[in-house]
Amino acid sequence: LGQDRRNQQTNVRVVRPEFRxxxxxxxxxxxxxxxxxxxxxxxxxxxxxxxxxxxxxAKPSQGAAQQAWVTLTESNWTIILDTVTANFQR
Length: 90
Description:
The chain has helices at residues 27-44, 77-88, and strands at residues 57-58, 70-71. It is mainly α.
């Protein structure tokens, strides 16, 4: 590659980034649904990207800076999504 890409930001357009899911379906089902949309968007993207981090993140509040985003895990995802949903509905 010949260049340091650690600080490079890439905006990949994900088609229909919002989707409904069943929270009773479990974290793996949620992760699979989100990952499927991102993988499809990356496949259609014409610039090579390096996936340094494959975690899913959520903004804990409307005005949260990117450094405050929370990694979704199997143990916290329902709590975080409840918070995100409540913030979205304000």
